[in-house]
């Protein structure tokens, strides 16, 4: 791999990049991609996993095996490499597999002597860095790509150009909240109340299913909320919203969220917000109302990623339901609150509905996301809680399970991510909002005010 002296860059990929996206080798167009041998060894450890990491590891290994069969002897050839156009026609670069053991010691300069002391080569991460430094010292324009912050710090200390894997990351992910706010003349608000709608041409920049909160510049008490329908008309939301399964919205964001949740034409709803803003509670209330009262859906399916906040408690005994009970306890808490009584909060035994009764009658199913692949789910109200812990590919897989006449709701808080390789702009929930905004079957609202309790609101704001 001689110095090209041109614009071609050499991207050295860390293992976590390939585990995050098996298509990452196709993302560098006419540049060269290097996979160190240590990465192949680490992929081998993941290939037997039944989760998304295992599937990505197997997919990458199959990519490499197909290229190896098509171009034998080229993977480790420093002049040839494996042409990537056979995988993707949009990619004209080459793929190399290089071992740290094959690195020529003469190419390791003074700056790399840290390997002899602090960066011992018994670590896979250090062997990956060794390959990147070797290529840099050959005169290549090396960029080291990793989702591991600590490894990026080490690479930067060695003088390497480092980057996170930016594909599927959302720029300005918090810009789209699902609604706008505007101060207007009172005449326009009076027109909205008299006609129950406004012409879409008055606010041409609005997207389908986006809301706008109009407030009078002269009268603080005069305001109206409208939603842009697929036909372009701005339809007014009811000034007073009736209780939905014993739950009344407490702020304008919750009113907008309920409007989307109760509209069968909106097939996918995303709700973002901090702790206590009512994301899951609103989704469950709408699901119970439309399943048990209106019979729009046959059952409710609730799922959430099984990622613990702190140390894991290990394997749990019993049936699938008993194993899931610990992970689904936040869902049970919300359901017991909603099923407590219809006129006032009574003991759950006095209600004609109970969580156990709904599960026994198969009106409520709790499912692990592990088992959702390959399913087709018709006529169900599907709630995916804590969706910020899912990758963009996992969210795509889940949404594509939605069958005819089903509705799906994704809830989460991008500020509370437990997946070590995701962040606020690179998780599946933020990615979904960014890619689907403006689609006629999609709606989104960012909930801003905590309504759980005064203490919860204080913790969200101050801690």
Count of all domains: 2
Beta-strand proportion: 15-25%
Unreliable segments (pLDDT under 50, ≥5 consecutive)?
A: 308-313, 342-351
What structural category do the secondary elements indicate?
alpha/beta
Order of strands side by side in the largest beta sheet? Answer: 3-4-2-1-5-6
Question: What would CATH call the class of the largest domain?
Answer: Alpha Beta
Strand tally is 17
**What's the tally of helices?**
15
CATH topology of the largest domain: Rossmann fold
Terminal CA distance reads 52 Å
The biggest beta sheet is recorded as: 6 strands, mixed
In the CATH hierarchy, the architecture of the largest domain is: 3-Layer(aba) Sandwich
General shape: elongated
List the helices and strands and how they pair.
Blueprint: E1 10-13, H1 15-20, E2 32-36, H2 37-46, H3 52-70, E3 82-83, E4 94-98, H4 114-117, H5 124-137, E5 142-145, H6 149-157, E6 161-163, E7 179-184, H7 186-195, E8 197-198, E9 211-216, E10 223-228, E11 234-236, H8 252-261, E12 268-273, H9 279-293, E13 299-303, H10 320-327, H11 329-338, H12 355-360, E14 364-366, E15 380-384, H13 392-399, E16 407-412, H14 428-436, E17 442-447, H15 454-462
Parallel strand pairs: 1-2, 1-5, 2-4, 5-6, 7-9, 12-16, 12-17, 13-14, 13-15, 15-16
Antiparallel strand pairs: 3-4, 8-11, 9-10, 10-11
């Amino acid at each position: 791999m001689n110095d090209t002296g041109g614009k071609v860059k050499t991207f050295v990929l860390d293992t976590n990049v390939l585990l995050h996206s098996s298509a990452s080798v196709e993302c560098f167009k006419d540049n060269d991609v290097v996979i160190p041998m240590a990465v192949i060894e680490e992929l081998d450890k993941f290939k037997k996993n039944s989760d998304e990491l295992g599937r990505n590891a197997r997919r990458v290994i199959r990519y490499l095996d197909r290229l190896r069969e098509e171009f034998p002897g080229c993977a480790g050839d420093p002049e040839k490499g494996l042409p990537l156009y056979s995988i993707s026609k949009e990619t004209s670069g080459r793929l190399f597999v290089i071992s740290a053991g094959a690195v020529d010691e003469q190419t390791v300069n003074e700056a790399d002597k840290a390997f002899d002391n602090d960066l011992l080569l018994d670590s896979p991460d250090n062997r990956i860095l060794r390959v990147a430094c070797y290529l840099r010292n050959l005169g290549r324009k090396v960029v080291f790509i990793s989702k591991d912050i600590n490894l990026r710090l080490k690479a930067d200390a060695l003088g390497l150009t480092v980057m996170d894997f930016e594909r599927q990351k959302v720029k300005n992910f918090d810009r789209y909240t699902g609604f706008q706010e505007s101060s207007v003349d009172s005449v326009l608000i009076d027109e909205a109340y008299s006609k129950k709608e406004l012409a879409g041409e008055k606010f041409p920049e609005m997207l389908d299913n986006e809301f706008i909160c109009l407030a009078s510049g002269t009268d603080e008490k005069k305001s109206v909320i409208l939603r842009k329908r697929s036909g372009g008309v701005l339809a007014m939301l009811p000034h007073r919203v009736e209780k939905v399964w014993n739950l009344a919205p407490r702020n304008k964001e919750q009113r907008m969220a309920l409007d989307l949740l109760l509209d069968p034409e909106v097939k996918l709803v995303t709700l973002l917000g901090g702790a206590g803003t009512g994301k899951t509670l609103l989704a469950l209330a709408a699901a119970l109302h439309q399943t048990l009262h209106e019979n729009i859906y046959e059952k409710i399916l609730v799922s959430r990623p099984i990622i613990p906040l702190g140390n894991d408690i290990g394997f749990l005994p019993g049936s699938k339901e008993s194993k899931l009970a610990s992970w689904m306890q936040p869902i049970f808490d919300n359901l017991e609150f909603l099923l407590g009584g219809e006129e006032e909060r009574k003991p759950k035994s006095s209600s004609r509905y109970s969580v156990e009764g709904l599960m026994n009658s198969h009106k409520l199913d709790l499912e692990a996301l592990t088992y959702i692949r390959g399913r087709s789910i018709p006529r169900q109200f599907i709630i995916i809680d804590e969706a910020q812990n899912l990758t963009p590919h996992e969210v795509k897989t889940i949404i594509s399970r939605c069958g005819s006449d089903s509705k799906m709701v994704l809830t989460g808080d991008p500020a509370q991510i437990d997946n070590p390789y995701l962040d606020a702009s690179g998780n599946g929930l933020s990615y979904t909002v960014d890619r689907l905004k403006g689609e006629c079957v999609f709606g989104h609202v960012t909930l801003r005010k905590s309504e759980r309790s005064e203490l919860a609101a204080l913790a969200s704001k101050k801690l």
